[in-house]
Write a structure and sequence with these properties.
This protein is an alpha+beta fold and 430 residues long. It has 2 domains: 290 residues, Aminopeptidase, CATH 3.40.630.10; 129 residues, Alpha-Beta Plaits (2-Layer Sandwich). The chain contains 11 helices and 20 strands. The chain has a 6-stranded mixed beta sheet with strand order 1-2-7-3-8-17, with helices on both faces. Strands 10, 11, 12, 13 and 14 form a 5-stranded antiparallel beta sheet that branches. A hairpin with a 2-residue loop joins strand 4 and strand 5. The model has no long low-confidence stretch (mean pLDDT 96). GO terms for molecular function: hydrolase activity; metal ion binding. Its cofactor is Co(2+); Zn(2+).
């Protein structure tokens, strides 16, 4: 790693981070070992409470999501499971002398399902190391980023310094399906001058897509399979409707219809059939089918506009299908109703982070567009808080043998530690 244009104190900060390498790997391994799937985040959040309280000596809050406080917010997405017993963990540092600008570091503790576990080289929640890679579900998305902001703060503490401004560390739930965890933090009044989310972007995020989840529920006409022409298959109709809906995906991907951020992307818009449930009996024409579908859309579009376009296309497809007289369908919404956003690259937090990266790493910070949704939207669209994503290099995200680069995680930690020193300023700790 080249190191240029940093002063003696910043060199000490970089060295202090590197001295935490083994501790960083140990903490990441511990976090990955907790299978923090939707509704099962608590044991991992208990680790976060311990680290924030015992290791970093922060003021710690366990924030339960109160759905009554967020359900009328424009950023709310319909929840999928109860919030009882599930919390965000927030650690707050308040300096004894305020000199600089405040910052939120945000990360999500929840992970997605592992898929067919037989495809994994080793059990997905038993992390293992292969060279520079730490492998396991959630290693990249996004527990390594959480470790980076923890260890950046810890390195400064080890040197006898504290940030000279408020620093809020957030470990939130439900980023992978609603974002209501981050929204609840915002509604509860946790604000700062800027936010950095340590998602595994391998660069600096410049924009992100909107994402809509919907369920397409079809009822058909059952019949004995030997007399299938007397029935109407809900499964066949469901698949035909989704195949027709892909024509809308193709239209949005046309160059003339693209948002400028995605003008050179090979295929920015994706409609994904994530789950399918249907049928009752092998020898019966199926009477029901449900498709769970994810729709990506461009930042300038609203959720309401996308719903209207999708519903109009589905209605036209259904009426054109020969089975429409003996079947019916409905669209329901649960999970993401997330608007996209484009990030103002002239914001001070952006220019400061880019400069810090260049000084510490010795090259320009790559700029990346993101084809998914992140919690950055809440801060940018609803909080008046400039936010972006910057985190480690990883791979197989949502896939098999998910991994993160340990060297990259440590580079991110070094950049964040020096960034804190510059953005917040430093006090000698009391």
């Amino acid at each position: 790693m080249k190191t240029i244009n940093i002063n003696a104190l910043e060199q000490d900060i970089v060295a202090a981070v590197e001295a935490l390498r083994n501790e960083s790997v140990t903490l990441l391994s511990e976090l990955v070992s907790h299978a923090s799937l939707l509704g099962e985040e608590q044991s991992a959040q208990d680790v976060m409470k311990r680290v924030f309280s015992d290791d970093l000596e922060l003021e710690v809050q366990a924030l339960t999501i109160d759905e009554s406080q967020i359900k009328d917010h424009p950023g709310y997405s319909p929840s999928l499971v109860s919030y009882e017993g599930r919390v965000n963990v927030i650690g707050t540092h308040r300096p004894w002398v305020v000199q600089g600008k405040s910052i939120i570091f945000n990360g999500h503790i929840d992970v997605v399902p592992v898929g067919d576990e037989r495809l994994w080289t080793q059990p997905p929640f038993q992390p293992w190391i292969d060279g520079d890679k730490l492998i396991g579900r959630g290693a990249s998305d996004m527990k390594a980023g959480i470790v980076s902001y923890i260890m950046a703060f810890k390195a400064l503490k080890r040197l006898g310094y504290e940030p000279a401004a408020k620093v809020i560390l957030q470990s939130v739930i439900e980023e992978e399906c609603t974002g209501n965890g981050a929204l609840a933090c915002l509604v509860a009044g946790h604000t700062a001058d800027a936010t950095i989310i340590t998602e595994p972007t391998a660069g600096l995020m410049t924009c992100q897509m909107g994402v809509l989840w919907l369920a397409l529920e079809i009822s058909g006409k059952p019949a004995h399979a030997a007399m299938a022409t007397q029935g109407s298959s809900a499964v066949d109709l469901a698949l035909a409707l989704f195949a027709g809906l892909k024509s809308l995906e193709n239209e949005w991907n046309e160059p003339a219809n693209r948002h400028h951020c995605y003008s050179h992307h090979p295929k920015p818009i994706n409609f994904n059939l994530g789950k399918i449930q249907g049928g009752e009996w092998t020898s019966s024409v199926p009477s029901m089918c449900r498709l769970d579908i994810r729709i990506g859309f461009y930042p300038e579009k609203t959720v309401a506009q996308i719903k209207a376009e999708v519903e109009a296309r589905l209605d036209a497809l259904f009426l054109a299908h020969p089975a429409h007289l003996s079947a019916q369908y409905q669209v329901t919404y649960g999970g993401f109703q997330a608007q996209g956003c484009e990030i103002d690259m002239n914001q001070p937090v952006i220019t400061s982070l880019r400069r810090t990266y260049a000084d510490v790493i010795g090259e320009a910070l790559p700029l990346v567009t993101f084809e998914g949704a992140t919690d950055a939207r809440f801060f940018n669209l609803y909080g008046g808080i400039p936010a972006t994503c910057y985190g480690p290099v990883g791979g197989s995200i949502h896939g098999i043998d998910e991994w993160v680069s340990i060297d990259s995680m440590m580079d991110v930690t070094k950049v964040l530690a020096v960034f804190i020193a510059r953005w917040c300023g430093l006090n000698h700790a009391k």
